[in-house]
Design goal:
By secondary structure, the protein is mostly helical. The protein has 18 helices and four strands. Helix 1 packs across helix 7. The chain is elongated. The chain starts with 14 loop residues before the first helix and ends with a helix.
């Protein structure tokens, strides 16, 4: 976990937080204005307070001075100025939660979490929960406005898959931010990682260094996080350790392990725009091929009515295999076949298939391309070889 005596990194929103706020501001200005104007209604606050008074034990400072000393220290370290009230719930699962009210902090503890954690770990837990409050309070409440908008979008039965995916990823990144808050509060990542493992397992003693070694072994599983509200613990532990050590590849690692590659099956709001731009540039690239006739332009204008010859083509880097998953590769293959089959001339059609096959080599799509020729166009093996022959000849 590195030198725990090093200077504490600055606690800042993650790149994905900023991306979503910027996206909503730019592309959904009316919805952003609505989300930014939403205020917690007084009746909601009163209902929450009444529930907490009825269903929990309030942890007063007089009876529990140590935990209140800890929360005062954490508030100072996270630069939060708000009164805090603590509650213990009746259920037995170890956890904690923040009931967010602007200007007030209400923390609810579940199970024996306060008893099973060491003091350093308890401070990390407090830092984690208070980091939620900090994130939602800074920069004029922008990150809380984004949360409000996404939560309301999910409340509708017809919520689009892109809204669902955006809300999921936003929640996952918020937990990574909160984990960082726990490390800042404890002045080290070890207690924060130990707290994650204890709340996951219920154990009274864990070794964070050993868990990081275990998490590194799970790195061979290249799938992005499948979490709905929290990333997997092994992902969170590694993300926190990398951030604390100042690893320059931290954001790229999080992009890969949490957000994952561009996938047709899971497009969030920004990636909808990215996928559209790649589609347009990809079709334009095919349209620049010498064998392309007006049928390609007609197909493009059917998809993009404002398309004009001479537009920018998709770059090689945008088609890098590590940026795209299998579903997006299949999608690009299908686009190539659609463009080629729109040409009524057999020779031009084959030339366009060869052009599509050449581009497929950029995104690791050669085998899917061959499979599509066989499956969708019923090409024989010799016919497929004829499509790829000019490419082999050009390489020779």
């Amino acid at each position: 976990m590195g030198d725990e005596s090093q200077s504490v990194p600055a606690l800042e929103p993650l790149a994905y937080h900023r991306l979503i706020v910027e996206h909503l501001r730019e592309y959904e200005p009316e919805i952003w204005a609505w989300g930014s104007s939403q205020q917690t209604r007084e009746e909601q606050v009163q209902e929450m307070r009444a529930y907490l008074l009825r269903e929990t034990y309030r942890i007063d400072a007089a009876a529990h001075p140590e935990v209140h000393e800890d929360i005062a220290a954490v508030l100072a370290r996270l630069e939060i100025d708000a009164p805090a009230t603590l509650y213990q719930a009746a259920d037995g699962a170890m956890n904690a939660a923040l009931c967010f009210v602007p200007g007030e902090i209400h923390l609810l503890f579940h199970g024996p979490v306060l008893d099973k954690l060491s003091r350093e770990e308890r401070i990390a837990l407090l830092g984690h929960e208070l980091a939620h409050y900090r994130l939602w309070s800074i920069e004029g409440g922008a990150y809380y406005a984004a949360t409000t908008i996404l939560d309301h979008a999910l409340a509708y039965p017809g919520a689009s898959p892109s809204h669902v995916e955006t809300a999921r990823l936003y929640r996952l990144h918020t937990e990574l931010y909160a984990d960082r808050g726990g490390a800042v509060a404890a002045q080290a990542p070890g207690p924060a990682i130990a707290t994650l493992v204890k709340t996951m397992t219920g154990l009274g003693s864990v070794d964070p260094e050993a868990y990081l070694r275990q998490a590194a072994e799970a790195e061979s599983d290249a799938k992005p996080s499948q979490g709905e509200t929290h990333p997997e613990i092994f992902v969170r532990a590694q993300a926190l350790d990398k951030w604390w050590r100042g690893d320059p590849g931290t954001e790229a690692w999080i992009e890969k392990r949490v957000r994952g590659p561009l996938s047709i099956a899971a497009l969030d709001l920004p990636r909808q725009y990215e996928a559209t731009a790649i589609t347009r540039g990809f079709l334009t690239r095919l349209a620049t091929h010498p064998a392309a006739d007006e049928s390609v332009g007609t197909l493009l204008r059917r998809t993009f009515p404002d398309w004009q010859p001479g537009e920018a083509v998709v770059s090689d880097s945008a088609l890098s295999p590590d940026r795209l998953d299998g579903s997006f590769r299949e999608y690009l293959v299908s686009l190539s076949l659609d463009v080629a089959m729109a040409d009524p001339d057999p020779d031009s059609r084959n030339a366009m298939l060869t052009a599509g096959a050449g581009i497929a080599s950029l995104y690791d799509g050669v085998e899917p391309f061959k499979a599509a020729l066989k499956r969708d166009l019923k090409f024989t093996k010799p016919a497929i070889e004829r499509i790829f022959a000019p490419l082999k000849k050009a390489k020779a």
